[in-house]
Amino acid sequence: MRSNLSGFYRKDVASRLAELKDVACLSDDDAKVLLSGGLTLDEADAMRENVIGLYSLPLSIATNFTINGRDYLIPMAGEEPSVVAAASNAAKMARAFAGFKADSTDPVMIGEVHIIGPDRDAAGAIDASRDEIISHINDTIPAMRERGGGARDVWAREYTSASGSPLIVYFSLDVRDSMGANTVNKVAESLAPLIVSLVGGRAHMRILSNLSLKRISRAKAYFTDDPVLSADIINAQLFAENDVFRAVTHNKGIMNGISALALATGNDTRAVEAGAHGYALYSSIYRSLTKYYIEDGKLAGEIELPLAMGTVGGNTGHRAARICIGKILQAKSARELCSVGAALGLAQNFAALRALTQEGISRGHMRLHSKTLALIAGATPAEAAKVYDHFKDGEEVTMSAVRACLEKIRLAKK
User: Fold this and answer.
1) Catalytic amino acids?
2) In this structure, how many other beta carbons lie within 10 angstroms of the beta carbon of residue 252?
3) pLDDT above 90 (res 165)
4) How far is CA 383 from CA 80, 365, 370, 377, in A?
5) Fewer Cβ atoms within 10 Å of its own Cβ: the N or the C terminal residue of the chain?
6) 101-104 β-sheet, strand order
7) How far, in Å, CA of 171 to CA of 230, rounded?
8) How far, in Å, CA of 112 to CA of 205, rounded?
9) d(CA 15, CA 21)
10) pTM for the structure as a whole
11) Which pLDDT score, from 0 to 100, does residue 382 have?
12) How far apart are CA 335 and CA 125, in angstroms?
């Protein structure tokens, strides 16, 4: 499959879908699912309580990505304009230097069992019973054990609080190609009675952690050999490293890409975002998830963050998500999906820094946003396209300016 789809953004929706059908070998039924959103009202009612309707978001494709020597078309679901175009453009720049190198560690999640009022030296008792606890965990998930997953470690710590000296028992679990939340929660609940029998006290909470420190994804790419642009990007990085207000927004830009991929593939966007921001703060100082430096005369960018996304289980079974994972992205494993996510996050971040240090973020972003404002103002899609054309010369985009433009367009028709 090739990802450098020339002029893809210039085509209408039908032409883009026709090209995607050819490139990704989508069936007519697949195309119908994507056009419809892949969810009926009855299915939505079965998925969640108190359903009153459906809420749709655009599904887009980021182009030009080469990751580990293979081309990828990356599905992204979300409402924010300029994000997909920015990622695609950054990927095109990286493509000139052989694209992205990315990898992910084994899909190991962490679970916790919280014990109130344990016996003395409870942490020592857990350490002494490590093999017994691991055996119990593995007996709880035989199917996952057969697939090569299962318990990897058990450890514990006590802390002092108004409740005395509670105990936290941690366990790590390889969840294979799933995100793993349901499996980890099942294990934690099954494990609690055994923990109580070993250390006394009362099992209080049993839950996974979304700070998946053992499930790390990384990506690296070269973007430019322009010394001026390189210096600007590095200075933007230093800004984020020395100002927490900027660092939070810097990392939000990364998640513009990763969260859109998570949503398109039926993964938990809140868990992914919580893990990323938790990791940014794990060193006790909130920091950037990316770094940039000069290597062999080129600007190199790197990203490292925990990503807990799966290709099976949960809402990855949604019909549109299955098409996004299996046919558009063609990801064969959770590790591959997370590696793609890391590359996408790095591309998104570079694109944002490039825009911010060159012409500023507002001009391109707000011009694209003009189409959304036009639709809010009651424009047809054809009228919204004309509104977008109107703002090509840099006029400030506001709702009042969009309304005035729309009025002129409609008067010209009469």
Assistant:
1) 80, 252, 268, 365
2) 16
3) yes
4) 20, 19, 11, 11
5) C
6) 101-104, 216-224, 298-306, 290-295
7) 43
8) 8
9) 10
10) 0.90
11) 84
12) 35
